[in-house]
Design a protein that fits this description.
With 215 residues, the protein is of the alpha+beta class. It has two domains: 3-73, no CATH class; 77-213, 3-Layer(aba) Sandwich (Protein Transport Mog1p, Chain A), CATH 3.40.1000. Helices cover 39% and strands 28% of the residues. The strands form two sheets. Strands 3, 4, 5, 6, 7, 8, 9, 10 and 11 form a nine-stranded antiparallel beta sheet that branches. A two-stranded antiparallel ribbon has the order 1-2. Strand 3 and strand 4 form a beta hairpin. The longest helix has 29 residues, at 46-74.
């Protein structure tokens, strides 16, 4: 059995440390980056280095693409989807207030939600009877709690981007982490003063539609 075949099989066939590390790279894309430097040291031949670098590039790019696609596939948070008619949730929500204009309103989901060991609340920002944003807030959230949630989101949706220019509403957060799909974007931030972790699932098309309506 040649080395290339061994690298693509289960750890049962990993006869030495070099092959075990390469298999870990294939099975755990996030760990691959941590092990990369060690791998290059252990790989004594140019052939082994080439194979492992090739696997790293291919697997990491595939994992990232699938993660971003997963954000669009989910369509929002749990049962609450962006772009959905607000009447879909009429038995689960209550009106909170009107926002910047008569067409933009905020609703609170009556039941609280759980994510891992954390409990939060969901709000729906609605424009012309369609859900524009799904806002998930975890109050009394410690920094390690936020970091745990952020790590889980990274596992689900891949590498994030930092928002370089924050909106006035985002100024409360030290940093805003952003995932951008074709249909949906996800923004996450932590407010140290309020001990607040917030996630926003945002309809990418809605901003353009609102602008069209103004003219």
């Amino acid at each position: 059995m040649n080395n290339l075949v061994k690298l693509t099989l289960m750890p049962l066939y990993a006869k030495n440390e070099r092959n075990r590390l390469c298999l870990q790279m294939a099975l755990m894309p996030d760990l691959a980056f941590v092990l990369f430097q060690h791998l290059l040291i252990l790989a004594k031949t140019t052939f082994m280095k080439t194979i492992c670098i090739f696997l790293l590039v291919i697997i990491s790019s595939v994992a990232f693409g699938q993660s971003v696609e997963e954000l669009d596939n989910k369509g929002g948070f749990k049962d609450f989807k962006v772009g959905e008619a607000i009447d879909t949730y009429k038995d689960k929500i209550k009106f909170t207030r009107t926002l910047e204009n008569a067409d933009t309103k905020l609703y609170l989901v009556k039941d609280r939600v759980s994510v891992k060991t954390y409990t939060g609340e969901v709000e729906l920002k609605v424009y012309k009877e369609k859900v524009q944003e799904v806002i998930v807030s975890f109050k009394n959230s410690a920094k390690p709690d936020f970091e745990d949630i952020l790590a889980s989101l990274k596992t689900l949706y891949g590498e994030y981007q930092l928002v370089k220019k924050k909106t006035p509403a985002q100024e409360q957060f030290e940093k805003v982490y952003n995932w951008i799909g074709k249909k949906i974007s996800l923004q996450v931030g932590y407010d140290e003063n309020k001990k607040l972790t917030e996630m926003r699932f945002i309809d990418q098309k809605n901003g353009l539609n609102k602008l069209k309506d103004e003219f």
